[in-house]
Structure formats: C-alpha cells, structure tokens
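Input.
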Amino acid sequence: QVQLVESGGGLVQAGGSLRLSCAASGRTFSSYAKGWFRQAPGKEREFVATISWSGSSTYYADSVKGRFTISRDNTKNTVYLQMNSLKPEDTAVYYCAADRRRYSGSRPSEYEYWGQGTQVTVSS
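Output.
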C-alpha cells in the first residue's frame, strides 16, 4: 500500500510560519520527484512547489516564491514545505504528491500519488 501522509497544518496569524511534512510509506520514494499543491474552497487545485529526486532542483509558484521553501530528506522518505510570512490568501488544504520521474512540473496530472491533505488557515 502506497501512502503519503501530510502533517503540520494548523491555524496561524498573518506573518507567521508553519512547516508541513509529508512522509511516504509502502514504497521507496527517494527516486521520485515530489510536489506540494493547495486547494482553497471553491477553487481549483493550485501548484505550490516541486523538488527533484535528489533535492538539487526546485521550482516555485510566483505567489509563494521567496516565502516558501521545499526540501526533502531521502533517508527519512520525507518532504517538507517551510512556509514563512504567511498571508490569509495562503489559506487552503495543502497536498503533497509524488511523481515517478526524477523531475516533475506544475501540473497535477504529472503526479501519480497523493496525500490526504492538511488544512492551513491564516488569520488576518
């Protein structure tokens, strides 16, 4: 059974920080690209960031560039999303995803595996 499990979401004031984690189990994901997406109520799922299998390559949505950092620890089969300077418009359910390829992009259709999501709420 392949599983991605997110954690670290919660309620934070604008300007605050959160770190999301996504732990993979059931399969070795160290060779897979990983991504973070988010979905606010009534909106489509939106790309946030992606990281290559080794961690050497990252790519961010313009809306989070300079505030969010994606990283991974392949020894722990875990990918992280450090979120700083949070804004109310960052409020959403955040999902991690895995792509069997070593590098991936910004489209949800590129990712084969998904977590169940974790809620992030930023109050003004």
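The chain has a mean pLDDT of 95.
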